[in-house]
């Protein structure tokens, strides 16, 4: 059985095929001909352990994420989600295969500041104020800073007005994560990569942040650039279904994408949507894919 | 109109109540820190004084503390002037040793090859008694200030080197990833990430090396007494069996040591205040 990941878009069943009028296109108009945000071809990652044994972290992966898509990556612990994200970000070189970010290598994408990174922990510089932390990405590699982002405006958008001069240690975990998100958005990257950004937050803040993220996703984005795409690694199925246009499910190690599930809930999404039949159904499909790691594709037609 | 009786003591302190709070600084915590060692020192001096007087101890074995203090204040200008020379050697050595060690640590933190090449040599120099090198330094640099400063630098570099390497490497790996994700240069990573992260480590090493630099300066002055300095005073006066003068010079050295250590602590607190303390929102 062919995995949906490897299937050309045109060959997908109507129920899951993204079309220009379809429900997948929510934030930005997705142009099928446009350069994909991410293209992975035959990507593998193998580690050598201290004992000299080879450990396969990511199995042969082929994946295309189009410009404007918000994709969630879910899977059991240690399945290689973070490794895959790091390969995309150019932080860990793939052992095999090709990685393309808007037609560029990850290194070129870094050079042109096309990647925005958000981590599980806020990872802010303790000795800098909120404002200076948000400004950091603009100060580094200044020749490539073309963003006209107004840092004060961005801080206001993420809800940290009045806290510009505060140090990270003076903020709550949620506020720190907002600052980290603002820092990633300040360089106005067309691709936002997030590794469990809300994992360290309490449940209430987490729920609040997942809906704010949808609002912040396209903030200050230059309309001349391709629509902003996002890859969001999470352990939470509900979070993935609530946020994403598309949920990719990974198998246990060696990680490979075993299901590609479109989420058809229209945007803007609100917390009430989590009580809808559609949300419950999508969640059940993702859970079923997680429970059947050997199944190459979930019963997509059931969606 | 009859005013309401005050039922709660907190009402007296309520903001806007019109009461002007008494701005009396509380010096009790300071006294709690300063008084015990002062009293202990005083008791020790009194005990020695009694021991010397009652036991009729020879002045060539142990002078009376009162005599030492008398000598110290009588020739305070002289001890202060010699102390400044020792302080100059100490600070010169500390500056050169710290700067060289920090630069070397910056290189080592970026290169494991450099680490493997340099660290064994640094450790070899560290385990070699510095005193043994003084004659060589005199041959190479003459009898002026240079060999003394070199000894003070050599004795101070190692704690700074080891701590600075640890500090430059102790960066949050996610922050490092963020810097890489925007293609930050090695210099940008050093300037904005590694150097600020190393500040607490550098101060920890300075607390050790500031006193080491004083030791280096005094030992070098024993050998090179021509240019003066408290080390030279101690060396000359002990040859003359003038122990009151020796103790007075040691007292001045103690004061310099305490001043230097306090300066490092104050500088660290000031910088920590700048880095960590709450800053009011504008």
Produce the secondary structure layout.
The complex is a heterodimer of chains A (303) and B (282).
Chain A: E1 38-48, E2 54-65, E3 70-74, H1 81-89, E4 96-101, H2 106-111, E5 115-118, H3 130-139, H4 151-157, H5 173-186, E6 191-195, H6 203-216, E7 229-234, H7 237-243, E8 246-250, E9 257-262, H8 277-291
Chain B: H1 10-13, H2 28-54, H3 65-74, H4 76-110, H5 112-127, H6 134-141, H7 146-169, H8 173-181, H9 186-223, H10 230-239, H11 243-276
Helix pairs in contact in B: 3-11, 4-5, 4-7, 4-9, 4-11, 6-7, 7-9, 9-10, 9-11, 10-11
Q: Into which percentage range does the β-strand content of chain B fall?
A: under 5%
Task: Report on the biggest sheet of chain A.
Answer: 6 strands, mixed
Helix segment count of chain B? 11
CATH class of chain B: Mainly Alpha
What fold name stands as the CATH topology of chain B?
A: MetI-like fold
Q: What's the N-to-C terminus distance of chain A?
A: 19 Å
Mean pLDDT of chain B: 86
CATH superfamily of chain B: MetI-like
Average predicted local confidence, pLDDT of chain A: 81
Number of helices of chain A: 8
Helix coverage percent of chain B:
over 70%
Note poorly predicted spans of chain B.
1-20, 276-282
Taken as a percent bin, the fraction of beta residues of chain A is: 15-25%
Number of strands of chain A: 9
What letter string, H or E per element, gives the SSE order of chain B?
Answer: HHHHHHHHHHH
What structural category do the secondary elements of chain B indicate?
A: mainly alpha
Q: What's the domain count of chain B? A: 1
Over the alpha carbons, how many angstroms does the gyration radius of chain B reach? 26 Å
Q: Architecture of chain B, according to CATH?
A: Orthogonal Bundle
């Amino acid at each position: 059985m062919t995995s949906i990941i490897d299937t050309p878009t045109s060959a997908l069943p109507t129920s899951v095929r993204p079309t220009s009028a379809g429900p997948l296109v929510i934030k930005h108009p997705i142009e099928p001909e446009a350069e994909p945000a991410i293209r992975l071809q035959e990507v593998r990652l193998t580690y050598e352990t201290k004992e000299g044994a080879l450990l396969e972290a990511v199995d042969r992966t082929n994946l295309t994420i189009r410009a404007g898509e918000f994709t969630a990556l879910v899977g059991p612990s240690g399945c290689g989600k973070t490794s895959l994200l790091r390969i995309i970000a150019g932080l860990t070189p793939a052992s095999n295969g090709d990685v393309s970010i808007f037609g560029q290598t990850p290194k070129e994408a870094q050079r042109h500041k096309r990647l925005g990174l958000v981590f599980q922990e806020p990872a802010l510089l303790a000795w800098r104020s909120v404002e200076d932390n948000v400004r950091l990405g603009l100060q580094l590699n200044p020749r490539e800073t073309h963003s006209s982002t107004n840092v004060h405006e961005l801080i206001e958008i993420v809800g940290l007005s009045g806290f510009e001069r505060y140090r990270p240690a003076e903020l709550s975990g949620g506020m720190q994560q907002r600052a980290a998100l603002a820092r990633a958005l300040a360089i106005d990257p067309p691709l936002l990569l997030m590794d469990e950004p809300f994992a360290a937050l309490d449940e209430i803040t987490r729920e609040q942040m997942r809906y704010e993220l949808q609002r912040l996703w396209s903030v200050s984005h230059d309309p001349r650039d391709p629509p902003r795409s996002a890859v969001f690694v999470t352990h939470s199925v509900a979070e993935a279904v609530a946020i994403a246009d598309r949920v990719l499910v990974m198998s246990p190690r060696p990680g490979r994408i075993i299901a590609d599930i479109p989420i058809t809930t229209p945007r803007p999404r609100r917390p009430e949507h989590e009580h809808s039949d559609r949300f419950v159904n999508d969640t059940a499909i993702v859970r079923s894919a997680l429970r059947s790691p050997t199944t190459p594709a979930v019963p997509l037609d059931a969606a | 109109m009859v005013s309401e009786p005050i039922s709660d003591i907190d009402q007296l302190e309520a903001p806007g109540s019109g009461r002007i709070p008494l701005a009396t600084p509380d010096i009790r915590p300071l006294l709690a820190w300063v008084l015990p060692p002062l009293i202990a020192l005083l008791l020790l001096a009194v005990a020695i004084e009694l021991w010397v007087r009652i036991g009729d101890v020879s002045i060539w074995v142990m002078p009376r503390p009162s005599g030492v203090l008398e000598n110290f204040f009588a020739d305070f200008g002289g001890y202060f002037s010699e102390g400044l020379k020792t302080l100059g050697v100490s600070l010169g050595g500390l500056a050169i040793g710290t700067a060289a060690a920090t630069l070397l640590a910056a290189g080592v933190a970026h290169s494991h090859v450099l680490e493997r090449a340099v660290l064994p040599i640094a450790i070899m120099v560290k385990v070699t008694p510095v005193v043994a090198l003084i004659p060589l330094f005199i041959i190479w640099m003459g009898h002026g200030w240079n060999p003394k400063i070199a000894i003070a630098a050599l004795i101070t570099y190692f704690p700074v080197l080891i701590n600075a390497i640890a500090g430059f490497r102790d960066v949050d790996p996610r922050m490092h990833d963020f810097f890489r994700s925007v293609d930050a240069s090695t210099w940008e990573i050093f300037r904005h990430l590694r150097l600020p992260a190393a500040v607490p480590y550098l101060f920890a090493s300075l607390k050790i090396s500031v006193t080491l630099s004083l030791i280096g300066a005094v030992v070098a002055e024993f050998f090179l007494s021509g240019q003066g300095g408290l080390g030279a005073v101690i060396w000359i006066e002990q040859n003359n069996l003038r122990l009151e003068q020796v103790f007075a010079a040691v007292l001045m050295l103690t004061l310099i040591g305490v001043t230097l250590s306090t300066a490092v602590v104050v500088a660290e607190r000031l910088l920590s205040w700048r880095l960590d303390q709450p800053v009011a929102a504008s």
